[in-house]
Amino acid sequence: MRSEDTHTDHTSKIVGTAWGLLILNTLGSAGAKTIVPLPRSLIQMATMGALVAAFALALAVNLRLRIRASAFLLLLTLLLVPSVISSVDLESGFGALFRCARLTLFVGTLWLLSRWWDGSPTFVRHHIRMYLAVLASVAAGAIVSPGAAMPDLYGGRLVGALWPLTPPQIGQYAAVIIGLTVLLVLGRRTDRTSAAVVIVPSLVLLALTHTRTATLGLLVGLALAIGSLVLTSAAARRFFTWAVLCATVAAVGFGSLLQAWFLRGQSQENFSSLTGRAKVWEALLAAPRTTTEYLFGAGLGDKSFGGLPIDNSWLAVYQEQGMTGVVLVAAIIIVLGGVALLRPPSLSRACAIFLISYCALASYTEAGLGDASPYLLHLAVAASLLAAPAAATPPSTPEGPRRRVPRWAQRSEVI
């Protein structure tokens, strides 16, 4: 029995390591200048190497290729079809084929890891631990070099000074682990001291990034997730009541400060155009397209149009994978959301609702739902939480006492 427990623990560590490598792969290579200059080619080699290592580890612990049926992964696999069709003509360059290969390896790794998707918060813990390590590097960079961590180029917002991370990235990671940790506390899956170690520093980093999307996603996601627990959890009801009370007091007493933080010193015109995003979106939608480009897009790229970031998952998918991609991504969100609504109230369901609602809200001002990204990993965790528990192996029926056979009857007769 002890050897089986040791083997299970070893396998769990390998699975957690593979998940951490997937997260490392999605950190990206573009961002602020770091304290020690890191060549972009070196960062790309590290992130791509992490993906290859994650696939190798997942394959090593799942050599028999046992997988769990998943509508999420099936739709994600189908998304490869428009990606390849639009990229094979090289309209977006050879980089499009490279991104297709990366997405294929990414989806393949998720399929291999799906064997351990059983509705438990196992992957939630993997998620929190890895992103907490990423945020620890951000905090370390801010302590070592405050000037590099909050440069004027980003308006004094917090960036990654040791690894090139942008304020929206840091805000997203902080918001996600704050929300998941709060839900684990409400579900009594962790103690308050451990939760405070995660939540308090992450809140500080989130505030320093001035990331509106992450903040709104955290608030809306938590409201929906805790609302799904209100009828069955007294802790959720108490937390919801205190949260509403504190929000009311903050809105009345610190309204002007909150408004100043939210506007980030921008003019009303700049704010209404979503920091210039609306102009890029209008130009993208007005651009002429062939029938093939309309259906399958122009190929996987760097999520930009005319040299400017698209910053919208739906328009980025439309640009790169066409309307076929948009339909598939919408199906992913709808299927996961529908399954979550049909599940009975539970901690796993609440965590899934938080992740799905966060990704849905963030998709309006952030790109990533159509390619290997943290958003797809968030949705993969949601899919693992919504998976049905693995069926227990029925105990073997003990054999009855053998009937004694006379020795003369055991002799074989030769005909």
Structure description:
The chain has 19 helices and 2 strands. A two-stranded antiparallel ribbon has the order 1-2. Mean pLDDT is 85; it is low at 392-400 and 408-415. The chain is mainly α and 415 residues long. 66% of the residues lie in helices and 1% in strands. It is globular and about 55 Å long. A hairpin with a 2-residue loop joins strand 1 (304-305) and strand 2 (308-309).
Order of helices and strands: HHHHHHHHHHHHHHHEEHHHH
Number of strands: 2
- Regions with little confidence, pLDDT below 50 for 5+ residues: 392-400, 408-415
Which percent range fits the helix content? 55-70%
Task: Sketch the major β-sheet.
Answer: 2 strands, antiparallel
**Strand fraction:** under 5%
Distance N terminus to C terminus?
Answer: 50 Å
Assign an overall shape: globular
Task: Please state the average pLDDT score.
Answer: 85
Q: Tell me the radius of gyration.
A: 25 Å
Structural class: mainly alpha
Task: Give the number of helices.
Answer: 19
Strand order of the largest sheet: 1-2
